[in-house]
């Protein structure tokens, strides 16, 4: 199975072998792969070598470890195009997944200066701040903190934000969201978010800030979303 004379390191060969097996469907999602000891015997290599291959596959998101139990085949990441201005609810429904939310907090306040500038607000203008955990098929995917100018959605209530915020803005408020700008960066998850997202500390997450505008270029919301990096892959088409 492995070529011990090859210049390709053994851990890379084992990694490729396991990766092929996973991609070919030899293991189903959630199934345990053989233990480190079994792989050590099969490939006649050290435990360290096997561990390195597995760690690389865990970091790639193909496998996940459960402490004291074993290593399992992960659910493939969601491939999220970066081109369309879609909502979380629309994205999940289009994949045949069930979106749901858990409201963590809902407040009205004078925002910090960066939010105030980005929302083009005057000093004393208030925003609603909505913090929600977003689930797909009951699994936590992201945490979103949304800031909406009170003057644009003055009567926002708890039941308005139970479902889709975009749907509330467009269908209930009859405002048209036309464009947005987005920034993305990789960061380490904050402790409180790790708990909500059910991931270990330290884990990398993707932080996306989206500012959505109405047709007249008035910003309607700023959303800071923390996405699980083990569940998401962002893709874009580029041309030359
Ligand atoms: C995505 C975007 C957010 C946007 C949200 C609206 O998650 N990253 O910026 O606020 O969709 O989703 P929904 O309409 O389901 O609340």
Explain this structure:
This protein has 240 residues and is α+β, with helices and mostly antiparallel strands. Helix content is 27%, strand content 34%. It contains 7 helices and 10 strands. Strands 4-5-6-9-8-7 form a 6-stranded antiparallel sheet. A two-stranded antiparallel sheet has the order 1-2. Strand 1 and strand 2 form a beta hairpin. Helix 2 crosses helix 3. It starts with 9 loop residues before the first helix and ends in a 5-residue tail after the last strand. The mean pLDDT is 94.
Feature tags:
alpha+beta, 6-stranded antiparallel beta sheet, two-stranded antiparallel sheet, 27% helix, binds 2-amino-2-deoxy-6-O-phosphono-alpha-D-glucopyranose
Topology:
Blueprint (H helix, E strand, L loop, with lengths): L9 H15 L11 H8 L3 H14 L2 E4 L3 E4 L4 E4 L6 H7 L4 E11 L3 H6 L8 E10 L2 E11 L15 H8 L4 E12 L2 H7 L6 E11 L4 E10 L3 E4 L5
Parallel strand pairs: 3-10
Antiparallel strand pairs: 1-2, 4-5, 5-6, 6-9, 7-8, 8-9
Helix pairs in contact: 1-3, 2-3
The site of 2-amino-2-deoxy-6-O-phosphono-alpha-D-glucopyranose has 14 residues, from helix 4, strand 6, helix 6, strand 8 and strand 9.
